[in-house]
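Input record (one chain):
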Amino acid sequence: MSRIHQIIIGVFIFSVIPAMLTGQVEQLGDQIEKSAEILETELDYAEILEELTELSGSPININNINEEEINTIPYLTSVQRKGLLDYLKTYGEVLSEYELQSIPEFDSVLIQKILPYISISAPSRVPSPTPKNLIRFGHHDLLLRYGQVFPRSQGYLINDSIEAIKPDSYYLGSPQRYYFRYTYTWFDKIKIGLAGEKDPGEQFFRGAQKSGMDFYAACLSLQNVGILKRLIIGNFRASWGQGLTFGSGLSLGSVPGFSMNIPMGSGFRPALGMNEGSYLRGLSATLKIKHIEISAFASYHARDATIALFDTNSLAVDEVSSFIGSGYHRNAAELKKRNAVRELICGGNINFSMALNQQLGFKIGLTGIFSKYASPLIPKVHPYNQFGFRGDQNINLGLDYQVRYRRLYLFGEVSRSQNQGMAWISGATITPDPRICITLIYRNYQPEYQNLFSNAFGQNSLNANEQGIYAAVNATIHPKFNLSGYFDLFSFPWMKYRVDAPTHGEEFGVMATWQASGNVLVGFRFYQKNIQANGAEGKNQIMGNLVDHITRSYRFNIDWITGSRFSLKTRIEVKESGEATMKRPYGYLVYQEAHFESLKWMEDIIFRFVLFDIPDYASRIYVYEPEVLYGYSVPAYQGKGIRSCVVLKFGITKKIDFWIKGGISYYTDRDVIGTGLDQISGNVRSDVTVQLLFRI
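The corresponding structure, as predicted from the sequence alone:
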C-alpha cells in the first residue's frame, strides 16, 4: 500500500472514530456477502430482500397469526417461535410490545430486532371477495427502474467491419438496464404479479427481443381459501424439509456462517425474481386437511444451454454440455444458447404434522421430484465430474423430519437420486437458556448423489461429494453484549474442479457485538478457512500437488445513531488469502457511511465512501452496498482505489416514491477496468440507477 494511501486511511479513521458509529450490525448483508464469496457466482437476492422488505412494510399482526406466518418472522429460533405460539394460545391477545417480555424465551434485544416485522392490534376480518371489495381493498404497486454504467465498454464500441466479420465481438443492444414490476395484492388471499428485465447489452423491442424485455415473470396466487392453502399459476419457487431433495431459489442459511435465523418459508411461494437459470414456471397447489398437507406441481419451460451436438437437417438439439444460468443474451454467441433445451419438472410433497402437547410436536414429510429434458446433458468427461449428472431424466426421493421437545429441536432429511446416490443431513438446535442457542449439523452427501435442484447446507454449490460437521453458538451474555461463533469441519471424498485428490478443511469464526451506549454499537468479526487445492504443476505433471490454503478475515465496525434523523456507520476490514507456507498479501478496505432521514420531501440520503487496497483475486472483499428499494449490489473489491456512492429517496407524494443512486469507482493501479467485452478504457467507472414506485 502506497504512503499516500496510508496517510489518507489514517486521517480518515482518526477523524471519524471519535464520532462514529448506527443501530445494528447488518447481519442480512453479512450473510449475502458470505454467500457470494463461497458460491463465487452472481445470484439474484432480489426475492429474499423483497420478501423481508415487504414484511417490514406490511408487518404481521401477531394477534391474528398462524404457524406458517410465525415461521416467516426473522431472528426467531424454533424454540422462540414455539414460545410465542404457546403464549398466544394460553393468554390470548398481546396488548403491547412490552408484554412480549413476559414470554420466557424473549428478551429486550430480540424484541427490538423483530419489531419492524410485527404489529400488535385486534384481529382483523377479511371481507368477502366481491368485485367491489376486490377493487376497494386491493393494493397496487408499480415499480420502474433504469440503470447504466459509464463509460461504455468495448462491447458497445463497434464499426461496420467488425460487425460483419466478428458477430460475437460486440453487444447487439444498448448499455441500459430496464426493469419493471407490477403487483396486485388483496389481504393475504390474492397476489397477481408481472415483472420483466432487459440486461445491459440486450436488444429492446427489436432483433432477438421483439417483445421488449428479454425475460418476463408472472404469477397468480390464491392463498388460505378453505382447504386450499395455496394455488399458484405462473412463476414460483418451492422447497421442503432442508432443501436437500428440492429447494429452488436462494436460502441465506445454505452456507456455513453465523446463525441468521431468517427463515424464508417452505412449500410454494409466488416468484417475480429475474433468476433466468433454475426458475419454475407452471402450476402448483397445496391442500391442507387437518394435520396433512399435500403439495403438487408441474413446471415446463426452456432453459439456456451450451449445445454440444445438433441435427444439421432438422436443426434439433441432440445433446447439451452444460446449463447456463447467467440469463445474458447480448451477442450472437449467447443467443445461440438461448432456450436450447426444454425442461419438465414435476413432483410434490406430502407431510404430516402434529403437536401432541405444548412440549412435544413433530412433522414428517415425503418429497418426490421427476425431471426430464428434451435433449440429454452430456458434459465433457473429466476425473472430477465423472459422478455428475448425465442423461435426460432424473428422479429424486426424500424423507424429512422435524421434532420439537421442550427446548430441543431436531431436524433432518435423507434423499436418493435415480442412480442410487444418497445424501443426508441431520441437526439439532438446543436452547438451554433463552439467551443461548446452540446449533449442530451433520451432513453426508455422496459423490454419486445427483440433484440439480438441491439447496441444503454445505460448502459446495451442489449438494454432492461432501461430508461435514457444523457447530454454532449464539449467546446474549449481557443485555448489551452478544457473542456468536461457529466451526465447520468438512471433507470432499472425491476430486473437485482444480483439485486432483480428495481433500479436507475447516472453517471457523467468531463475532461479538457490544451496545456501548444507547446509540453506539461496536462489532468485531473474525473468520478463517483452511482448504487444500492444486499447487503449481511441474513439467510433464498430469496431476497437481495439493497445497494448503488459508483465508483470514478481520472486521471491525462501529455504528452510531446521533439522533432520530442521522446515523453513521464505519467498517474496517483486513483479509489475507494464499498458500499456507507462503507469505500472503493483505487486502484492506475501509468505508464510512452516513444516513440522513426525514428531511421533508427528501426522505433519505445514504452516502458511502470506500478506500480499498486489495492486491489479488484471492483476497477480494465482498461488500453489501446501499441500493434502491428491492435492489441489491454485492461488489467484490479488488485492486487499489476509491469507491463512493449515494442513494437519494424522494417522497414525491404519499403514493409516489423516487430513488436515484449514483456511484463512481476510481482505480490507481490500472489503465483499464474489466476484461473482454466488458472492458472499459481508463481507470474510472461510474454507474447510475433511477427508480419510481407508484402505490395505489
